[in-house]
Specification:
Strand content: under 5%
Order of helices and strands: HH
Distance between the termini: 30 Å
Radius of gyration: 17 Å
Number of helices: 2
Shape: elongated
Mean pLDDT: 90
């Protein structure tokens, strides 16, 4: 069973996902900095790696949201 989502709602969904991934990446990077202050080097590096991975996913999702938004605007004009 597949859920049908309209084009105008789809880009908002991608935008919400990307903003939540951005918030998570900032959280993980902040945790990595705090772990570094405590001397937990391996834990901080792993946390910062997860943060940058989530940041990359967030930027990719933002780009996908922009593509879907532009495609939905193009369909409305045609």
């Amino acid at each position: 069973m597949r859920i049908q989502i309209s084009e105008s709602l789809r880009w908002l969904l991608y935008l919400a996902i990307s903003l939540s991934l951005l918030a998570l990446s900032i959280l993980f990077i902040t945790w990595g900095i705090s772990y570094m202050e405590k001397g937990l080097v391996a834990t901080s590096l792993l946390s910062v790696l997860a943060g940058f991975t989530l940041l990359s996913a967030s930027l990719y999702s933002l780009r996908l949201s922009a593509y879907v938004y532009a495609a939905s605007k193009e369909e409305r004009r045609a």
